Amino acid sequence: MLSCPRHHHPLHFHHHHRNRNSTTILQLSSSHHHHHDQTPQNHATTTTITTSDKPILRTHNSKSTSLLIHHLKSPNQTQNKIETSQDVITPEERVKLQELTLVTKKRIPRFPGSVFQTKAESLDSPLQTLFRNQSEDEYNSENDDDFDEEMVVKAIEIRRKVTAEIFKQAMRKKGKFGITYSTNLVNRLDDFVDFVMIKAAAMKRMDEFKFLSFNDRARRVIEELNVVSLIRWLKHNAVSYPRIAKLIYMSRGNVESIRRVTEWLKSIHVKGEFLGSVLTKAGENILERPIEELDEIVWYLESNGVRMDWMGYVMSRCPQLLCCGMEEVKTRVGFFLDMGMNEKDFGTMVFDYPRVLGYFTLEEMNQKVNYLKEFGLSNEDVGRLLAFKPQLMGCSIEERWKPLVKYLYYLGISRDGMKRMLVIKPMVFCVDLELTIVPKVYNYPFFHAHLIQLSSFDSDFILLISFFSLC
Questions:
Q1: Is it the case that residue 148 has pLDDT exceeding 50?
Q2: Residue 227 main-chain phi, psi, to 5 deg
Q3: pLDDT tens for each residue of 151-168
Q4: For helices 362-373 and 326-337, angle between their N-to-C axes, nearest 10 degrees
Q5: Cβ neighbours of residue 168 under 8 Å, at least 6 residues apart?
Q6: Spatial contact of 173 and 182, defined as CB atoms under 8 Å apart
Q7: Does residue 108 sit in helix, strand or coil?
Q8: Where is this region: Disordered (predicted)?
Q9: Which residue has the higher pLDDT, 14 or 327?
């Protein structure tokens, strides 16, 4: 029976390197030593662990091998390798690489055990490596300028798409909007997306933002403009997304002016369903006008008979008044007051038909008043006529009045009879000739046969015009 030694001696590994195959033979050697009181005898036992009488070969890790080769090479060789590798890249691959560098955040990977040069001077941006295949002299040639311009245009398109996606993401996360609503709205805001993109690019020059990525700067611009909360507020006030897009375009970056003017419109009793139409139809300069000028217009109309309770209704039906200057408003109001109207008649006229005050041009208004005077009406008669039926101002001379007068002449009604028609029943000059008057005349033979005789009697003539005015 073999006796076990009291002391266990460490194993000694002997490595034999073979240069060609980069292999290692693992040898296990054990030495048995006796105590000092015994005779010193060295029994060395060398054992080679094999499988099927062959040594186990271990191959180096491929990653460690490539890393070693990479560090053994000189910087010039590495640069030459990069230059030669760029020749293989096709234009389509360059565009994909450029899109990846613009969309993703460029950072240096740092983790325990990583080997990476962290000097900023030795790092080139991915965009610069795309143009390394040419020398500096060739790069400044005409062909390269065209190529550079094409790449810049593509880069701008990529930036625009990235900015639009950031805007949609902000609307979904902070505004709690749906995907469809966010997409439909952002697709109508191309100019605003460009504005955000340009402002985010300009922030790169500031010291406090130069280390931020483009995505972070674009998010910062959207947050500073506070546009997402404004969109939510406008939607809460029943403004549709096409009108929201138009308002943001009209603001030209000053989106806070939309909230300011909208709050003022609500203060004069404009209902929420009309806020969007008033802002979009009033004109582009409505967002640039001071609130003091708008208050002055409202005060002047109120002093001339338009009640404050009616002001929201009037502005909803005629938002063009908000873009008129104070002098123009006074001229328009004076146009009706000069025809003998008092404040009460003027106020009710504006309430009945708000367009009579601000929708038509002064030249068109003068033409219609002069045409009515050709029937023998005085200036005061026209004033009373417009106060009673202001919708006459909305009728066209060429399309409505002249065909009606020609038809009445054909029926045998004189100009004096037309004057009486205007005074007694001005609605006749507001209805459609072909759809209302002509069918009624020819469908009732009694009126058609006795029309001329009826026109000579006042009582029957009143019945005639009442018949004409029926819808």
A1: yes
A2: -80, -30
A3: 778 888 888 888 888 888
A4: 10
A5: 179, 182, 183, 186
A6: no
A7: coil
A8: 28-58
A9: 327
HSE toward the beta carbon, residue 397, CA cutoff 13 A: 10
Nearest to 11 by CA among 33, 34, 27, 35: 27
Tokens 């990977």, residue?
Answer: 109
Produce one character per residue of 435-465: b if its CB has 16 or more CB atoms within 10 Å, e if not.
Answer: ebbeebbeeeeebeeebeebbeeeeebeebb
Q: Hey, how many other C-beta atoms are within 10 angstroms of the C-beta on 282?
A: 22
332-371 burial, b for 16+ CB within 10 Å, e for fewer?
bbeebbebebeeebbbbbbbebbbbbbbbeeeebeebbee
For every residue of 123-155, DSSP letters joined together read ---HHHHTTTTS-HHHHTSHHHHHHHHHHHHHH
Q: Does the global pTM surpass 0.85?
A: no
Chain segment 419-448, per-residue pLDDT in tens: 887 887 788 788 777 777 777 666 655 555
Give the number of residues written for the chain.
Answer: 471
Asked whether residue 9 carries a pLDDT value surpassing 50, the answer given is no
The alpha-helical segments, DSSP class H, found in 252-394 are 256-267, 272-281, 291-303, 308-317, 326-337, 343-352, 355-358, 362-373, 379-388
CB atoms inside a 10 Å sphere around CB 251: 22
SS3 category, 340? coil
Lowest mean per-residue pLDDT among 129-133, 185-189, 358-362: 129-133
Non-local (6+) Cβ contacts of 270 within 8 A are 278, 312, 315, 316
